[in-house]
Amino acid sequence: MSNVAIVGGGVTGLVAAFELKRRNVPFTLFEASDRVGGVIQTHRERGFLAEDGPNTLLETSPKITDLIKSLGIEPRRWYSNPDNKKRFIVRGGQARELPASPAGFFTNTFFSWSAKLALFREPFVKASSPDAEESLAQFVKRRLGQEFLDYAINPMVAGVYAGDPERLSVKHAFAKLHALEQKYGSLIKGQLLGARERKKRKEVAKDRAKMMSFDEGLQVLTDALGGAVKANTLFNTPVATIQQVEGGWRIGGAATLLSPGAGDGLGGRSPALPFTHVLLTSPAHKLAGLRIDSPAGGDLRLLGEIVYPPVTSYTMGFKRGDVAHPLDGFGVLIPKVERRNCLGTLFTSSLFADRAPAGHVTLTSYIGGMRAPELALKPLGEIRKLVLTDLRELLGVCGEPVWEHVKQWPKAIPQYEVGYGRFKDFMDGFERDHRGILFGGHYRDGISLSDSILAGFKAAERVTGV
């Protein structure tokens, strides 16, 4: 009978725990802090709502839909406003609408004619060698040209990864793009033909998936998951040691192995009993400090070399009359070539209702990342000035914010850079040499919230073999 230790109470660990509970598999969830949810934290104050971590969830898989139903929070699910689908990119110092359809792409003046003609050439560009590893920038320049890189891919990567396309690996960070080229020889052909395969699998591409949140933000999801597995959760219990013993693995704290009976609500089952499986879902930079006591060795320090750039999220509430831009879209992204302070700004109160009181709007801006990590770590007063400068010049904001909430993440999002395969190979090898230890989470399975949720299901399936 499996008995599972889950290290880390972020969304991957929570989903794995919930799925194991549904399968009647015993488990204990170890969380270092006094709350679960990881980076998902929602703040409500004076009628404004801010998210410290992700702002939206993409419904890319029926497993996500089923999870929401199983938790009983389906009535609280809100889809994003269908009238606000526009996406804006800064070009020439102005927030301009990015064409959303093929017809709009060719009639809109956002891209030059040379960039438009590059699309006609794309199906005839030779695919790279399957063994070659390119940066995203190299890949895009080869297939689509510099302008697409500068004004489509660079801002998108900044908004999603807080990353640098010159350093991110196509093969690892954008594996589906790499697979499309290898299978179909063209991104355009792959998008058309690959859609049929996704439909058979009942999956939805991220650019077409429904965008959702909940009435009180994404923490509704993690709170529901946490409540469902609370009886098997140890809070304020950082894990420092994982020791191989007869029959499996034993979990240890900072000084010694947890003793029988430690923790609350475990129904008398001791977390010191051997676990058949240990699922590691904490961020890679935290796992790097774990000590694995095993005859096969157990050094995880290599995971500490995975790059996590700092990012600061700054949410501001304004009177509606103090913002000139109509805010009729998802938000605005800022290319590196435009030389601004921020990576981009979400029009938070346009995406979902009840994110700002009547007569007000909420804007969430991001600063730092791989583009300018030093900016994310500046004193908050300086960051505030940098954000307001961009908002005033790009969105026509005047006056001062009437409400503010800020969150600094010294280590935000793992970067799947060129050469990232060495980390994946290391984890694969470690799992082979240490039977029962499993890795899962955004450092292995993809950085989006939907990826992290599906990683939890995948981990539970690996434990049960189903």
Overall 3D form:
globular
Approximate strand percentage? 15-25%
Largest sheet descriptor: 7 strands, mixed
Spatial arrangement of strands, main beta sheet:
8-7-16-17-18-15-19
Low-confidence stretches: 255-271
Write the layout of secondary structure elements.
Elements: E1 4-7, H1 11-22, E2 27-30, E3 42-45, E4 48-51, E5 57-59, H2 62-70, E6 77-79, E7 86-91, E8 94-97, H3 102-107, H4 113-121, H5 136-143, H6 146-160, H7 170-173, H8 175-184, H9 187-200, E9 210-214, H10 219-228, E10 233-234, E11 241-245, E12 248-252, E13 277-280, H11 284-287, E14 291-293, E15 311-319, E16 329-333, E17 342-346, H12 348-351, E18 360-368, H13 373-376, H14 380-395, E19 403-409, H15 421-433, E20 437-439, H16 449-464
Parallel strand pairs: 1-2, 1-13, 2-10, 7-16, 11-14, 13-20
Antiparallel strand pairs: 3-4, 5-9, 6-9, 7-8, 11-12, 15-18, 15-19, 16-17, 17-18
Helix pairs in contact: 1-10, 1-16, 8-9
